[in-house]
Amino acid sequence: MISTSGLIKKYGRTLALQGLDINVPEGAVYGFIGRNGAGKTTTLRILAGLLIPDAGRAEVAGRDVLRDPRGVREVVGYMPDFFGVYDDLRVGEYLLFYAAAYGIRGATAQKLRDDLLELVELGHKRDAFVDTLSRGMQQRLCLARSLIHDPKVLLLDEPASGLDPLARVEMREILRELCRLGKTIIISSHILSELADLCTHVGMISEGRLLRQGPLNEMLAGDRVRKFILRSNGPARAAVEVIEGWPGAAVLNAADEQVEFRMSGDAAEVAGLLKGIIGAGAEVVHFAQTEQSLEDTFIQLAREVQEQ
Ligand SMILES: Nc1ncnc2c1ncn2[C@@H]1O[C@H](COP(=O)(O)OP(=O)(O)OP(=O)(O)O)[C@@H](O)[C@H]1O
Q: Do residue 101 and residue 144 come from a single domain?
């Protein structure tokens, strides 16, 4: 549905994209994760037909961004990370204005305005001035605007940034609804936890390159490395020493009586390590595997890339 291959974009001497390859299947909600400056906005702007890459290919719903930018804009709704709203317009007028830009007028435009306001839960604000809306409401209005031409694909750049926790939940509900309506969505974020319960797929980007992508459940499977927590009666020093000397294990955090570590290997190896820790004199009172979060996966991959 959406794909890029070998995408390169330079801004002067800055290489923002260094051969990016991403693949987003139809109907996916693709969480596009990366730190500030990783190249997320650049990628979304290219996919929206707003920025021309220096090399490589990008395709959206079968349309090539270089050969058919107009066709791309027809199927894409883009919500930028920073957006301006016209202050002297009322909410309803704002949407009618954008509908007119797409040639939609009269009763059809009014129905569309009402449907979209309902979708983004702003029906009660139809006659309010845009500049009196809260940040969360303005984000939702901007989302409604990006939906005016009923695009198949939505590109949302940090849609939850600057929102308070409740507004984030509201935004999440709306995105779920859009997903049910069958849209293919890319959502960029540098806040990993924000995406975990929303996305079906995840792509991790660092310095303009893809680190890893795939279905969320596979990314979280964490079969590469597992994380454990151990608590002891008294200082965990003995346990820390054993873990640090154990092949494939590494201490992540150590406090007085507690140590968190990661380890690769099968159940027998984990049992072997635990035996070693107890044998070294640690009085273990708690030992458990903890879930590998999206954040852990991302940090681990980013470290591996830096070490290469
Ligand atoms: N117009 C520009 N001129 C010069 N450099 C730019 C421009 N836009 C982006 N860059 C640089 O390109 C790189 C990628 O930026 P981009 O905005 O795509 O990253 P991002 O992942 O969206 O970051 P953020 O999360 O901060 O929005 C950064 O090093 C940035 O400084």
A: yes
